Give the backbone structure.
Amino acid sequence: MKTIGLIGGMGWESSKLYYERINKRVNKVLGGSHSAKIIMVSVDFAEIEKLTFANDWNAIGQIVTKSAIQLEKAGADMVVLCTNLIHIVSETIIENISIPFLHIADATGEAIQRQNLKKILLLGTKYTMEKDFYTKTLKNTYGLEIAIPKAEDRDVIHTIIYKELLKGIFTETSKKTILRIIKNAQIKGVEGVIMGCTELPMLISESDVTIPTFDTGAIHVNKAITMVINTNL
């Protein structure tokens, strides 16, 4: 079994889930007393958040790339970024390491393809929904039609993520708001929902909606485990 390198802290709630899920999945696959080989570098989210609001993606790229290099030097065999949004700087990471980097959009696109769906709703921060670092992979590589909520709903989701979910706050009011947005998209023909923020599945469960939901964090983890157990990275 190879070693997974995790870049965490964005936020720590989802990083905790990554660590837990990886170990549980490895134990389920390998049995016995097996657990995962993991190295984690965790950043200070306050720094990332400030730079995000300033649209300073170059500085963010430098921070997470430094973390990726630390992981490689420490002996990681691959790098997994425990967040959706910061994949916006994934090209910078890839250029500066010699070990594989698993992009969350690739893992998610594969999972959607397996269910033969075409029109998918993408939920996440405004940056994830509006910039093309995520959607271009889903469209160009996996042939998906990506729908996003209207502008005012994108603002609402963004606020819920930053003011609540990333701080470990999960309210019934916010849950009802997200479910309303999903319902409206269903009426317009979407066949599934990408939970493009790793904290969203903590608020909305599969049983809350009548179409498939794609928990990007869980999908990301499962793909990473397949790669490290099958040592042909």
The radius of gyration is 17 Å. The beta strands are 4-8, 38-42, 78-81, 119-123, 145-147, 192-195, 213-215. The longest strand covers residues 4-8.
